[in-house]
Specification:
elongated, 15 strands, about 400 residues, 5 helices, mainly beta, 3-stranded antiparallel sheet, Lipocalin, single chain
């Protein structure tokens, strides 16, 4: 009988009461709407709090508070009610115990500045001879790169990533060679120029599913995505360095040392296509993470060239088309110097290769010619240092 009396008294006073666990102690809260008073206590009831409760139930509330147990009846009831109202999973009770809402997602963004070395070469010719490599250009540039990236992660492992980068060339060279015979023999013309002012842009995004290993400190994320990249190679301040007009009679070749006054040619390649990859992340210490990623890419290649000193060619002097394949690898380290704030260091390296494309030239008289684009090889590597914020 005494047990039923206590339960009835508890029900009468349970409406204005809520229990919120804090650390290892139960916290009882009573709100007096009329007085605007909010009273809390820890393991033991304070005199001020028990004074707020009028009626026979006050001694019962003090008794519950004095037990000092985390799993009191009121605590359990309040926690179950909170879980029901919030729709929380059983696994989220630890978060509720600490007075925090369970996180269903996480995100981060970062910005970095670094050095990138970029190279590209292409050659055109006639398969089987006449000659097989008629003309070849090799570009090289040192660039300063600004990169911005971010990712979003759901609690179930779903991951979405994105990255944008822009690089500006402050130094570099280009070599333009023409051959009279097969196997790059009989070089009758060569010019060298500078590539400073060249630019590179990249935009990539992807999605995947992180699979944690048993200790949850290491995760593997298969990813798939799409990448767009373009470059603008500039050739300026050129000079003629090889001149053998006798190898090809009737072709006007500038003499060695001739300054190519007014040279401002452009070659503008771009790649776009899907990729598949995998990322491995490891939390080696509380403040230190490592990341390794590998991607395989399939791209459609398109390029436009402008040879501004060729009076016989139109402004868009030629176009290249073809399909390329390549890969990219990345290694990163992260040091958290403050909660949700980190310094990131990244190294990456990648290659793209095209074979059996097409080169189409456009002349001022309206005619066009088509020749084989034998190959295009593009390569770059970079090192960057940046900042990352988690939220």
């Amino acid at each position: 009988m005494h047990k039923y009396t206590l339960l009835a008294l508890f029900s009468a006073f349970s409406a204005p009461l809520a229990a919120h666990p804090a650390g290892d102690a139960s916290i009882f809260v009573y709100d007096d709407a009329r007085a605007g008073v909010r009273t809390q206590s820890g393991a033991k009831a304070l005199p001020e709090m028990t004074g707020q409760f009028k009626g026979p139930g006050s001694s019962f509330m003090a008794l519950l508070s004095e037990t000092g147990e985390r799993r009191t009846t009121l605590n359990v009831l309040a926690q179950n009610t909170a879980e029901a109202n919030a729709g929380a999973d059983v696994g989220d009770t630890a978060n509720l115990k600490d007075g925090a809402n369970p996180r269903k997602w996480g995100a981060s963004w970062g910005a970095s500045l670094g050095y990138r070395h970029v190279s590209l070469d292409f050659n055109i010719g006639f398969p089987g001879g006449a000659p097989d490599v008629l003309s070849e250009l090799e570009y090289d540039a040192e660039m300063t790169e600004l990169r911005v990236n971010g990712d979003w992660r759901a609690a179930n492992g779903l991951t979405v990533t994105g990255e944008a980068a822009y690089a500006y060339g402050f130094s570099g060279d280009v070599r333009d060679s023409d051959y009279a015979f097969d196997g790059r023999q009989g070089e009758f013309s060569r010019s060298n120029a500078r590539t400073h002012g060249s630019t590179s842009r990249r935009l990539a995004f992807g999605a995947g599913w992180r699979v944690p290993l048993p200790n949850n400190r290491i995760g593997v994320t298969p990813l798939a995505g799409y990448t767009y990249q373009d470059q603008d190679w500039r050739s300026r301040h050129g000079r003629q360095t090889v001149s053998e007009p006798g190898l090809v009679g009737g072709i006007n070749v500038p003499p060695v040392g001739w300054r190519l006054s007014g040279l401002d040619s452009h070659y503008k390649p771009r790649w776009h296509g899907p990729w598949l990859g995998v990322q491995l992340d490891a939390n080696l210490a509380r403040q230190f993470d490592l990341r390794f990623g590998l991607k395989h890419q399939w791209s459609r290649y398109y390029a436009e060239g402008e040879w501004n000193l060729r009076e016989d060619l139109r402004k868009t002097s030629f176009k290249h088309h073809g399909d390329s394949r390549g890969w990219q690898t990345e290694i990163g380290a992260l040091w958290r110097f403050l909660p949700n704030n980190a310094i990131a260091f990244t190294l990456d390296w990648g290659k793209q290769r095209l074979t059996n494309g097409s080169d189409r030239k456009f002349f001022t008289d309206g005619t066009t010619t088509k020749i084989r684009l034998n190959e295009v090889n593009a390569e770059s590597w970079a090192a960057s240092l940046g900042y990352r914020m988690d939220f």
